[in-house]
Design brief:
362 residues; mainly alpha
Amino acid sequence: MLMKRVSIAVLVAVVIVSGCATKPPVVEEPAVIEPVQTGAIISDSELSDLHASVLAARKEAFDLGAKDNLSNDYAAAETRYVAGKTALDADDRPTAKAELSAALPLFEDLVTRSARLAAETGRDNAASARERAIASGAKATSPVTLSAADALRDAALAAFDSGDLRNAAALFRKAALAYDAAEKRTRAVGVKTDVDTRNFGPLDSGNYELAGKKLDEVDTTIADAPETANDAASEALLRYNLVLRNGWEITVTNGREAAGEYKVEAENIKAQVAVKDDYAAAMSIWNEAMTYYANEDYATAFDLFAQAEVLFKAVYEKAAAKRAIAEAALLTAAASTERSSIIVEEGDAILGDGTIPAAGNE
């Protein structure tokens, strides 16, 4: 029992001594530095592709009339785009991405809504253009052009009914252009007929020839390129009108000169005095013709100059006739005076002194 107590005491003493011994130094672990999170890197290609997509949607919305028809929403989308473009130019990539990403769906929504509006407006415009073409006489004069326009209209209607609104809007626009070309072509043919009737073509052969080429171009381009056909029809109409105008100008100038010659001849023989009223009537027509001529209303001026020519010719002839009568009378009077002088001279010779004695002085 005693030995057991001693052993316990020794053990306790050893533990106490061990606890009082110096502890070894603590070795600290190196601090781990966590990397700062800066977000994902935005590449040049990502921003470039995003910007290109926004530009494409923006252009399509604009082309479809969103800026005019949906002005408030277009302005909102434009504000986001401008902010994104400004940030892009400043290389503020996060802001650029955020703003351009916000602008893209806004423009895409504008495209969708504008496409329907454009398709509906285009349908109405095409219908109105067709009515004008029919009224101009296109069925008889420009059947090929009108048929091509109808085909484009039918394709547009099919696209509209199927919900392909963007394509429908584009096709309706082409149809309207084609109908416009049919109307202009028909009008150009009408002017050409007038030119040919009056034989004005040789007076402006350059424009006449070019107009004919443009007229032919309408039918060869109408199906695939209605805008080109419409431009050709416009130029054909313009050129034929130039030929008509130039032909009239040359012709009416000739008419003015013809009337003017009689006017001068009449004035040279004092017709304004001899036949005052007739001269005044001719001058009234002449002045009216000159007014229309100055205003380039050549057709009206031509008719008036023709009337003035007839009137001045009549004035000249009437004045000339009166002048001839007056001259004959003067000649007769002169002859009579001469005869009287001869009789007097003969009497003087007979009387000797040339004095006739007074009555009662014989």
